[in-house]
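Cross-posting from the modeling subforum.

Setting up a comparison between two proteins and wanted a second pair of eyes on the formatting. Protein 1 (sequence, then C-alpha cells):
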Amino acid sequence: MSNNMSYDPNNIFAKILRGDIPCKKIFENDHVLAFHDIHPQAPIHALVIPKGAFVDYADFAANASDVQSAAFTKAIGEIAKLLGAHEQGYRLISNCGVNAHQEVPHYHVHILAGRALGPMLSGK
C-alpha cells in the first residue's frame, strides 16, 4: 500500500461492491464495477472501481493480477464508449494520496466528459 493509507473495508466503494449501498450502475463484470458519480463534475461523470481491495493506483499496479489489470484497463475503454464519451473526448482522473485529494481509500478512476473540461490544473 502507498501514501500511508490503508485499505478500509468499510469505505463507501467497498459498501457499494457488497451491495450495502445502491449505485446507478453503468457496467459490471467479474473484475470491475462502474457507476455514475452522485456529485457529477461534468455532464458525464462515471466512477470505475476494481472488485478488489486496492487503496490507490500504486497498490493496484503492484498487487493486481495480470487478469485484474487487463480487465480494468479494457473496461475503462468500454465504459467510455457506452457513455458516448469517446466521441468528443474525455478525461481520466485517479487521485492518489493526500496531496491529490484522494477521499476514498479504494482505487478508482473518474471518467469525465460531455463538455470542454478546461486546463488540467488551476496553476495554483
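Protein 2 (same layout):
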Amino acid sequence: MEKIQCICGMRDLVRALSQLETQLEENYGVTLNEAMVLCSVGGDTVSAGDITACTGMTPSHASKTIRSVEDKGLLARKLGEHDKRQMYFALTRKGKNCLGRIKEQGVDAPEWLAPLLNPVP
C-alpha cells in the first residue's frame, strides 16, 4: 500500500470512529473511550491496570477517562482489601443500566467499520 493510501485510510477510520462516538454521546451520554471503560469493567471489579490493558489506553489517558466515568456516576472506586493503595473499580447501578442499554440497543456501525465489527464467517 502506498504511504498516502495508508494515511487516507486512517483518515476514513478516524471519521468513522467520530461518527460512532457521536452516536454514543447522543444516545447514551458517553464518549467512545467511556463506553470502552464500561465494557472493560462489565460485571467485574477491576483495577485501573486491567482497564488500561483492556482498552489499550495509556495509564494517563485511562486515569482521565476513569475519572470522567466516575464523575458521571457510572463507576465506583473501592480500596483494595489487602493493599489499601490499590484502587478497584466497579459499575454503579447507573453504569450497569447504561452498559445494558448499549448492549441491548447497540449502535449503528458506520459503513466503513461494518466489515471490521461484523465480519462474515
